[in-house]
Design brief:
- The structure holds two protein chains of two kinds.
- By secondary structure, chain A is α+β, with helices and mostly antiparallel strands.
- Chain A has 18 helices and 28 strands.
- In chain A, strands 11-12-9-19-16-17-18 form a seven-stranded mixed beta sheet, sandwiched between helices.
- In chain A, helix 14 (509-526) runs parallel beside helix 18.
- Chain B is an alpha+beta fold.
- Chain B has two domains: 2-77, Ubiquitin-like (UB roll) (Roll), CATH 3.10.20; 85-153, DNA polymerase, domain 1 (Orthogonal Bundle).
- Helices cover 37% and strands 16% of the residues of chain B.
- Chain B is built from six helices and five strands.
- Chain B has helices at 23-30, 75-78, 85-92, 102-115, 121-128, 138-153, and strands at residues 2-8, 11-17, 49-52, 55-58, 71-73.
- A five-stranded mixed beta sheet of chain B has the order 2-1-5-3-4, with helices on both faces.
- In chain B, a hairpin with a 2-residue loop joins strand 3 (49-52) and strand 4 (55-58).
- The longest helix of chain B has 16 residues, at 138-153.
- Classes of the chains: A alpha+beta, B alpha+beta.
- Chains A and B meet through helix 5, helix 7 and helix 17 of A and helix 1, helix 2, helix 3, helix 4 and helix 5 of B.
Chain lengths: 707, 158
């Protein structure tokens, strides 16, 4: 939490706009926010976000966060308006061009609310005090006699009022105050309310501009022919047939392949298909998912780097009253956001502009700096609305190639990825294998739980933290299980196979929570224990997990009669600072599983907008269910075998379960939400399938395994 | 190149394009109307749905030559001000998340409701299962379709 006594936090500036502009610093991650608050120092004097109160009463929040559907723009505006006391309906968010001098800027790890909770309210409070001070000076009264509400300042000594816009100019001459106290939660008027999303009206009329909608004067369109084998290189190419297509102008080799330039997107696509390229397929030409799976499986028989060592796993296994073993597997997954990847770039001798739907503004800026040789102040990254991200837009490959091409052809260019490019030439949630061995005590309760994980580093080697040979994101969901099982041991193998991997919504928890919560269910079944009872017993010292488990079980009617053929399965998780439990109600008939209902309880700390929390949970459950039921990228001869949505299918309207969301009240700091609902759905469904059929699903996707 | 004349959102439109170019790209690149979205290019996802003579059609798979003389309506022309019952219901239920697929979803639902003023859940599934939303807004879409049906029946005021 931000200390209100911090000095110099706000710097006011009047650059480029009439009215009051207040600049402030928004830490990028919750970890950084915590460190800043703990230091209580007068720094940082850096500014990377602004509030502008216009003389026309407009309120603009300029933030480096971006919107990919998670409702950030709305929730952050709520935080601001709560303290600013402006008219909520007048807040308009803008994404400014970023300045890399301010450190890592991006949208990932469900961080936006967590990192902004303190600073944004603080900035709003300080701007409000400046407006009040300006009004007090105008009226020649003490500031304590002025009140702000809905963007209007009233003089409590009489009936005089001034709007924020009327004093914004005068306020801009004042020094930002320090030590402004923030409202206690009991006085919140906006935080905690299900206010309508600010971005909805433009999204139902087609007015929202996504990266793919950017058009700049003189722009040409491009599509890239990419090597079908990961890591392959261009040997030579012949553009004769491509250039015969009306609208195709040229073909240019860049690092990602050969770009075909045209005067419209369709001609560029057709040109890239018609291009004849001789590829050096490189060392991955022999890669197969089956070979990869075999290699990973063999690795799990060997001791790995220790990700958790508690008690004595081997000794406990040798004395356990009952032992069980299981091998779990998860496939490669594509992200497939609805907006295919794209980027517009314009590189000039004196400047570079990049327009991108991106989760990683800083990364793109760094690439532009390196590729253009320009100065930092000559580079502008325009952050656009994203048509989904899910982790794929934390990559920078799609911007790098656009900058390279723009530099080569000297005119602005938009590269659009075809859906086939997206599915076949991307970065993937890695496939992984985990081998479990567990044992029960004489009463049938878990005594020992060991896991041996083979998983490529999620970020392709550049993961955050870990140490000691352990990639923390590859083991999260198993190494950090909260169950009070006496002996817990987790080993990790950092395997690689040449396939580019990256973060996927909820990262390591996407497969590891499926593995861990399923194997825990196996231990419960082996000991003849009820899955909820077992979790309650071993989470007794985890009040927030226990809380969501109890709410989900109660609301779902766990243990009570269900419609004929319907069965329940449960799973819990603690990720991105939130605590979540899900109970899935399924039936299985004719070899197909139908997920009827999912009851989800979440404790995500203090809630800014409950309706957006509900939305994110419903969203995450459908996203996770798509992967559980259908999601699989397979590779033969180094080539992805799926091309488009007919082969990489996702959950549709008729398959989407009813989702009941229950938010558990909490006074804790806000947790993340974008990823909190993903991990539990696969194990909850598979545990319900076991309850229904006695068949244990140990490999995703479920697909035809019940046939 | 061919000159193709059609009606776009109630107004006469003429374009000089490759007759094989899909309507989607005529709209987006030639005419700069970006409300209609590219999602798959194979009529698999529904993001590019527009109305052609009142029928919901995947513009990514409809050649420009085939729209000569036809009446094309896009999300920009569904209403002048977002007041179509489907758009109003979408706003009331705050359906969109990333929003990218929603132009297509809305156009699909508007065509559905024009034919079936009170669709059942099964009717909705039968039509809307061909529209992908990666944010998983399906539950909200379903609620908004039922609400739009009410608004439409009550002349947009219910």
């Amino acid at each position: 939490m931000t200390s209100p006594s911090r000095r110099g936090f706000l710097k006011s500036t009047a650059v480029g706009a009439a009215g009051l502009v207040v600049g402030f610093y928004l830490p990028e991650s919750s970890k950084m926010a915590a460190q800043t608050a703990a230091s209580g120092s007068s720094t940082p004097a850096k500014v990377n976000a602004w509030i502008r109160i216009g003389t026309d009463d407009s309120v603009t929040l300029m933030i480096h966060k971006s919107e990919m559907g998670q409702g950030t723009v709305t929730s952050l505006s709520q935080l601001l308006a709560e303290e600013l006391e402006c008219d909520w309906k007048k807040v308009r968010p803008e994404f400014p061009g970023i300045d890399p001098a301010f450190g890592l800027q991006g949208v990932f790890g469900s961080n936006s609310i967590r990192s902004s909770w303190g600073p944004l309210r603080n900035a709003g409070a300080q701007a409000r005090e400046m407006l009040l001070q300006a009004a007090a000076q105008r009226w020649a009264i003490d500031k304590s006699l002025c009140r702000a509400s809905d963007g209007v300042i009233s003089n409590s000594a009489n009936t005089n009022t001034l709007t924020f816009g009327q004093v914004a100019e005068a306020a801009s001459k004042l020094t930002p105050p320090t030590g402004v106290a923030l409202k206690p939660p009991s006085q919140f008027k906006l935080i905690g309310k299900s206010l309508k999303r600010l971005d909805t009206p433009d999204k139902v009329t087609g007015r929202t501009k996504y990266g793919i909608d950017v058009h700049v004067p003189g722009m040409v369109y491009a599509s890239v022919a990419r090597c079908p084998v990961f890591g392959g290189k261009v040997v030579s190419f012949d553009a004769t047939k491509a250039k015969a297509i009306p609208g195709v102008k040229d073909a240019v080799q860049i690092s990602s392949g050969v770009a075909v330039i045209a005067d419209n997107t369709w001609a560029a696509f057709a040109g890239a298909k018609a291009l004849e390229v001789k590829w050096d397929e490189g060392p991955n030409a022999a890669f197969t998912t089956e070979g990869n799976r075999k290699f990973f499986t063999e690795q799990t028989l060997l001791p790995g780097a220790s990700a958790r060592h508690q008690g004595d796993g081997a000794a406990a296994l040798s004395t356990a009253a009952k032992k069980i073993d299981a091998l779990y597997e998860a496939p490669f997954l594509a992200h497939a956001p609805m907006e295919p990847l794209n980027c517009v770039a314009h590189v000039r001798p004196d400047g570079c502009d990049v327009w991108a739907s991106t989760q990683m503004q800083t990364g793109i800026s760094g690439i532009a700096l390196r590729l253009t040789g320009l100065r930092q102040d000559q580079i502008t990254i325009h952050s656009e609305y994203m048509g989904g991200g899910f982790g794929r837009r934390s990559g920078t490959d799609f911007a790098q190639e656009a900058i390279e091409l723009a530099k080569a052809i000297k005119v602005p260019v938009k590269i659009t990825w075809s859906r086939e490019n997206d599915i076949q030439n991307g970065f993937y949630r890695p496939a992984s294998v985990t081998r479990f061995a567990g044992g029960l005590d004489a009463d049938g309760w878990p005594l020992v739980f060991t896991a041996n994980i083979a998983c490529p580093p999620m970020g392709g080697g550049g993961s955050f933290g870990g140490g000691r040979g352990v990639d923390s994101t590859s083991v999260e969901g198993i190494a950090d299980l909260h169950y009070a099982i006496p002996h817990m041991q987790v080993d990790y193998h950092s395997v690689t196979g040449g396939i580019p991997t990256t973060y996927w919504r909820a990262v390591g928890y996407t497969q590891n929570t499926f593995f861990g919560e399923s194997f825990l269910d196996e231990l419960a079944a082996a000991g003849g224990k009820d899955p909820v009872e077992l979790r309650r017993r071993f989470l007794a010292a985890q009040p927030r997990l226990l809380g969501v488990l109890n709410v989900a079980a109660e609301k779902a009617g766990w243990g009570k009669p269900l419609p004929a053929g319907h069965h329940h399965g449960v799973a819990v998780v603690n990720n991105v600072g939130s605590y979540t439990a899900q109970v899935a109600e399924v039936s299985v008939s004719e070899g197909k599983v139908k997920v009827h209902r999912v009851t989800c309880a979440t404790d995500c700390g203090q809630v800014v907008n409950p309706a957006i929390v509900d939305q994110q949970i419903r969203s995450a459950i459908v996203f996770g269910l798509s992967a559980a039921l259908k999601g699989e990228i397979t590779i033969e001869g180094g080539r992805v075998q799926q091309t488009n949505f007919h082969q990489y299918d996702v959950v549709r309207m008729d398959e989407a379960p009813v989702v009941d969301v229950h938010i558990v009240p909490s006074v804790e700091s806000p947790g993340g939400m974008g990823e909190a609902g993903v991990p539990c759905i696969a194990p909850a469904v598979c545990n319900a399938i076991f309850a229904a059929t006695g068949k244990r699903i140990r490999r995703l996707p479920i697909q035809e395994q019940l046939a | 190149m061919a000159n193709i004349k059609f009606t776009l959102n109630g107004k006469p439109q003429s374009v000089d394009v490759n007759p094989d170019m899909p309507l989607l790209w005529v709209l987006r690149d030639t005419l700069g109307m970006t409300g209609t979205k590219f999602g798959c290019g194979m009529a698999l996802c529904g993001a590019c749905t527009v109305h052609i003579n009142g029928t919901a059609t995947r513009s990514c798979s409809m050649q420009a030559s085939a729209i000569a003389g036809k009446n094309v309506v896009t999300i920009e022309g569904l209403s002048a001000d977002g007041s179509h019952p489907v758009q109003k219901a979408w706003m009331e239920k705050d359906v969109p998340q990333c929003g990218y697929c929603q132009s297509g979803q809305i156009m699909g639902v508007a065509a559905l409701l024009a034919k079936n003023s009170k669709p059942s859940d099964a009717d909705i599934d039968e039509v809307m299962k061909f529209y992908i939303c990666r944010c998983g807004t399906y539950q909200d879409i379903r609620a908004a379709i039922h609400r739009a049906a009410e608004l439409q029946t009550n002349g947009g005021v219910g």
